[in-house]
Amino acid sequence: MKAKTLNRQSKPRVTVKDLARDLGMSVSTVSRAFYADAVIAPTTREAVLARAQEIGYKPNPFAQSLITKKTQIVGMVVSDINNPFYPEVMTRLTEDLQAIGMNVMLVAASDSAKVDDAVRLLLSYQPDLVIILAASLSSEAMRECRVAGSPCIFFNRLSLDPECFGVSCDNREGGRRAADFLIDRNHRALAYVSAFPDASTNVERKEGFVDRAKERGVAEPVVIEAGRFSYDAGYAAADAFAALPFRPDGVFCANDILAIGFIEGVREKLGLDVPKHLSVIGFDDISMAHWPSHSLTTIRQPVDEMLATTVEFARALAANPEEKPVVRRIVPSAVIERNTTRWRMEETE
Amino acid sequence: MKAKTLNRQSKPRVTVKDLARDLGMSVSTVSRAFYADAVIAPTTREAVLARAQEIGYKPNPFAQSLITKKTQIVGMVVSDINNPFYPEVMTRLTEDLQAIGMNVMLVAASDSAKVDDAVRLLLSYQPDLVIILAASLSSEAMRECRVAGSPCIFFNRLSLDPECFGVSCDNREGGRRAADFLIDRNHRALAYVSAFPDASTNVERKEGFVDRAKERGVAEPVVIEAGRFSYDAGYAAADAFAALPFRPDGVFCANDILAIGFIEGVREKLGLDVPKHLSVIGFDDISMAHWPSHSLTTIRQPVDEMLATTVEFARALAANPEEKPVVRRIVPSAVIERNTTRWRMEETE
DNA sequence: CTGAAAGCGCTTACAG
DNA sequence: CTGAAAGCGCTTACAG
Questions:
Q1: What are chain B's domains?
Q2: B87 and A86: CB-CB below 8 Å?
C-alpha cells in the first residue's frame, strides 16, 4: 500500500503511436521492426529503426513484458558481502548480462532470514531468472520462484535442490590439490579451517582435502570450525588452533579471507610465523591474496569460465524457461604458490 | 531487437480480475484497496487485503507503472569496485531501499566510457531516481536522465551539476583534521597522496589538508599523484615518494585502500617503517583498516548518516520528482588513531 | 462509497 | 508483407 502521488511532470515519452504517425505506418508494423523473427520487409524495418533512433524511441519495457511475459530482468540475490570475491563477481556478471540486453535487479539481505522477504519482493517483478550469489534460499523461497516461473541459478555456492541450475568450481578437486600440494612438500600434520558448515563450497573443499589425505596415507586432517567465511572468523580460529593437542604444519582454509584472518591470528596471538612454523593455503585468489603483505598461496577460482557459463545459462533460460536444470563444476587452477607455504624437512616418524 | 520466443509456461498469475470475481466486487474497488489515500470503506479494504494475502495476489508492478508513471525502481550506477568501501554501501543502500518498497536496478560499468551506455539501458526502465556510486556521469548522460524524468543522487563523489542531489561527507573538513592531527604531533613535512584527480572526494580532501597546513604555518604539503583510488596506485606511489628531494614525515592518503597500498610500497620497496619513519593517515575506515596487519590510522566516513540521508532523499523524490536538488555534506569522525601514526620528536629547524 | 468505462504502451493472432 | 482490433493487468476520472 503506497501513497498516491502526482504523476511525473517530465516531457512525455515518445511512443509507438508517435513513431507510427511520423512514418505513416501502422503501429503493428512499427512494433514488428523490433523483433528479429517477425515478418516484415527488410527495408521497412530499416526505415523504422533509423527513424526510431533519430527521435529517440525505444519500446517501453513494461508494456512489452505485460504481453510477452518476459521482463529481460534477472534478479540477483546477494548476502555475504564480507567476502571480497563477490563484489567483483557481482559487477562483472552485471556487465555481462547488460551486454546481452538483460537488466539486473539487485536484492540484498544481511541475514539470511531476510533473504526470503527480499526474494518475494523481487518476484513481483517477474524476473526471467534469478541468480543467487552467496546465499542460501529456503526451500519455501525456492518454491515461490518456481510458482512465479523464475528459474534459479546458484553461483558458487550450490543448492541441494535438483530443480536449480548451478555453477561453481570443482571444489572437491581443489581440496584434493591442496592436500597433494602440502603432502608433496612433506607436510604430515594437516588441518582444515572450516567456514559456514552448510555451504557446499565449504563442505566440498573439506571433503576433497580430507579424502585425498587419507588416500595418500597421511593422518586424517583435523578440522577447525571457524563457522563463517570472514576475516574475523579466521582470526578467531587461531585460538582453536592453539588448543589442539599437537601443532599441524599444513593448514588449508576454506577461502582466502578466512586464511588471511587465520594467518594474522596465528601471528599476533600465538607468535607463530607463516610459513616458518606452518604453511597455509587459501581458496579464491582474491586480489588481496597477491598483495605483498599477504602473499597468500591459494587456489584460483576459474571466475572467467564460471561467469561465461552463467551468462550462457541465462541466455538459454531467457529463451526457454523450461530448460532442464544442470549444474556445472569447473576445474580450478593448480595451487598458486606464494609465501605462506614452504617445504618441510623430512622427519623421522 | 530480440528473438521472439515462446511465452513462459508457468501457472498464470492471479490478477485483479480474479480477486474481484472471488470477492464479488468490481476491479476498481479491489484496486483502491492497495492505495493508502484512495476513497474506500475501511472494512472493504480489509476484506480485499486479507483475501489478496490468502490467494497470493499482488498488483503487477508493470501494469501499475504503465499508468502511474512511477516504477518504484531506483537505478544504481557503480563502477569503482576496487574500493571495499562501496560493496558495503551498495548492499546496505539496497536493503534500506527495499525496506521502503523500492527495488534496485543495478548498472555496472568497468570503465567510465561504458557508464553512459549502461545508464541509457537503465533509463528505459524509467527509474524513479538514479543513485550514482563512485562514478562520474557525462553531462550528456545527466541530460538524458533529466529528459527521462529520473533525478540523480550522487553518493560520496559529488557532481558539479547543480541539478543533482548529492550526499557526501565533509571531505574538506576531513582533510583539515588530518592536517591538524599530524601537525599537533609535530609533523612538519607533509604530503598528500592524490587519487583520481576529477573526483570531488579527492579534490576536497586535498584542499582541506593543504589549506589547513598553510593556516597552521607549516610548509605547503607536497602532492603525490597516484591517479586512482586503488591498492596498486598506492603501491606505485611509493616510487614517487622516494623520488622526492626530501622525505615527508606525515602523509595523508586520499583513502584507505590507497593508504594501505602506499604503506606496503614504502615498506617493501623503500625499506621504510611506518610509523617509525613516517606517519600515514587514510580515509574511509573500511573494515580492513582495523585488521592487525594494517591497523591504519584513518578518518571514518559517516556512513550511517550518509545512507539515511540518501534514503530520505529517495523517499522525497519518489513522492515528488520535482523536489529541489540539495547536496548534503556530513561531518566525518575525528581521526581514529591506530598504528600507522605516532608523535615526532621536536626538531630544531 | 462503488462500479463501468477508458486508457497506459505495447504485441500478436487474424484478415487481407 | 501490412493494418485493424483485441487484450496484457492495472488505475482513475466520471457517474451514481
A1: 16-59 (1.10.260.40), 73-169+303-330 (3.40.50.2300), 171-301 (3.40.50.2300)
A2: yes
Q: Do A105 and B104 touch (CB under 8 A)?
A: yes
The CA R_g of chain B, rounded to the nearest whole Å, is 26
Strand A335-336 to A222-225 pairing: unpaired
Under DSSP, is residue B133 helix (H, G, I), strand (E, B) or coil?
A: strand
When CB atoms are compared, the residue of A3, A6, A288 closest to B37 is: A3
Q: Per residue of chain A (349 residues), what is the pLDDT tens digit? A: 444 343 344 557 899 999 999 999 999 999 999 999 899 999 999 999 999 999 989 999 999 999 998 999 999 999 877 889 999 999 999 999 998 989 999 998 877 677 887 888 888 889 999 999 987 788 888 888 888 889 999 999 998 888 899 999 999 999 999 999 999 999 999 999 999 999 999 999 999 999 999 999 999 999 999 999 999 999 999 999 999 999 999 999 999 999 999 999 999 999 999 999 999 999 999 999 999 889 999 999 999 999 999 999 999 998 888 899 999 999 998 999 999 999 998 654 4
Cα dihedral B154, A100, B8, A321, rounded to 10, equals -110
Determine if strand C comes within 7 Å of the CB of A27. yes
Q: List the A32 CA – D15 C1' distance (angstroms).
A: 40
User: Which nucleotide's C1' atom has the smallest distance to the CA of B44?
Assistant: C1
| Full DSSP string of A311-347 | HHHHHHHHH-TT----EEEE--PPEE--TT--PPPP-
Closest CA relative to residue A29, chosen from A41, A37, A12: A41
Residue with the three cell numbers 503493428: A28
Q: 3-state DSSP call for residue B321?
A: coil
Cβ neighbours of B327 (radius 10 Å): 16
Please give the angle made by the CA atoms of A21, A22 and A28, to the nearest 5 degrees.
Answer: 50
* A19, A223, A276, A306, B38 from A269: Cα distances, Å: 71, 20, 16, 37, 63
Distance in angstroms (rounded) separating the CA atoms of residues A150 and A142: 9
Q: Please name the residues in contact with B127: beta carbons below 8 A apart, sequence gap of 6 or more.
A: B71, B73, B74, B75, B105, B150
**Strand D positions closer than 7 A to protein CB:** 1-5, 7-13
- From A96, which residue of chain B is nearest by alpha-carbon distance? B108
Rounded to whole angstroms, the Cα distance separating A102 from B349 reads 64
Tell if the CB–CB gap between A122 and B103 is shorter than 8 Å: yes
